[in-house]
Write a structure and sequence with these properties.
This protein is of the alpha/beta class. It has 11 helices and 8 strands. Helix 4 (141-154) packs antiparallel against helix 6.
Length: 276
């Protein structure tokens, strides 16, 4: 297993990391293994990664955290923007003394991971993007209205689940605004150039079927946009196309995600040897 040149803690750590006007709940397994930072889905929690982490095992340094107002402990904020989410990656890594890391993101977290890898080529060992970061113009005014309507309906029962950490401590408009912002950032003219500038190894693990709020084959049309990206950027490949849908991919196809992590880490190790 390759090691990282950043300082490594010898034991696991769980605590709160202050950032901006809030604080994030973070878990770091420590050790000398390759640091892997896991970036959650838009309203998901770090617990979603437990199967991937177990599959990879103890030879890696696993860093997970709950985004602003997510989970049971991360605090509320006045800023739930995408840029805040990208800043939070740096804040968590800085707090844990990690300079270079492999980023693994699912859904919204995949877009965060793509931006972070694009902006930090010297710090990114590589990226695994799980059924997200597809450059496609899926947001129009009708879709924005569907999103707002969906979150207003969901907000009727979300307060009942908030004490469990299963739903964010955000109101319906805040959640809708975040999802609509994601739609704008996912447009081909916005996300395409970000993916084109990535110079580290990237492997996609792509689901099948629908996701929350999608209809018919909408999600498969979105995924098809990846073909043009792969044609333009030799660093980006599809590691696996799996049978599970968007919501179940980390639960049912975690071995494919873990294998993509191993592949990307191996490519970084080969590159390091070549540079010697």
């Amino acid at each position: 297993m390759p090691t990282n040149n950043a300082s490594a803690t010898s034991s696991s750590w769980t605590g709160m990391v202050p950032v901006d006007d809030t604080a994030l709940a973070v878990t770091d397994t420590g050790g000398p293994g390759v640091p892997v930072v896991y970036l959650n889905g838009q309203f998901a929690t770090q617990g979603y990664w437990r199967r991937v982490i177990a599959e990879l095992g103890t030879g890696w340094r696993h860093i997970t955290y709950d985004e602003r107002a997510r989970g049971r402990k991360s605090k509320r904020s006045a800023d739930y923007s995408f840029e805040a989410a990208v800043r939070d990656v740096d804040a968590v890594l800085a707090a844990r003394g990690v300079h270079r890391a492999l980023v693994v993101g699912w859904s919204y977290g995949a877009v965060v991971g793509a931006h972070w890898a694009s902006r930090n080529p010297e710090r990114a060992l590589g990226a695994v993007l799980v059924d997200g970061a597809f450059p496609h113009d899926w947001l129009d005014e009708a879709m924005a209205q569907r999103i707002r309507k969906m979150f207003r309906r969901m907000n009727l029962f979300m307060p009942l689940l908030r004490p469990t950490g299963l739903t964010p401590r955000m109101n319906a408009d805040q959640m809708a605004d975040s999802n609509i912002e994601l739609g704008k950032l996912s447009r081909e003219r916005e996300l395409g150039p970000v993916l084109d500038t990535i110079t580290v190894p990237v492997r996609y693990v792509v689901a099948s079927g629908t996701s929350l709020g999608s209809r018919g084959d909408e999600q498969e049309q979105i995924r098809a946009s990846l073909d043009a990206v792969i044609a333009r950027n030799p660093h980006i490949r599809i590691g696996a196309k799996v049978a599970s849908n968007h919501g179940a991919i980390l639960k049912k196809d975690f071995p494919a995600v873990a294998e993509a992590v191993r592949e990307v880490a191996g490519l970084d190790r080969e590159d390091a040897v070549d540079r010697r």
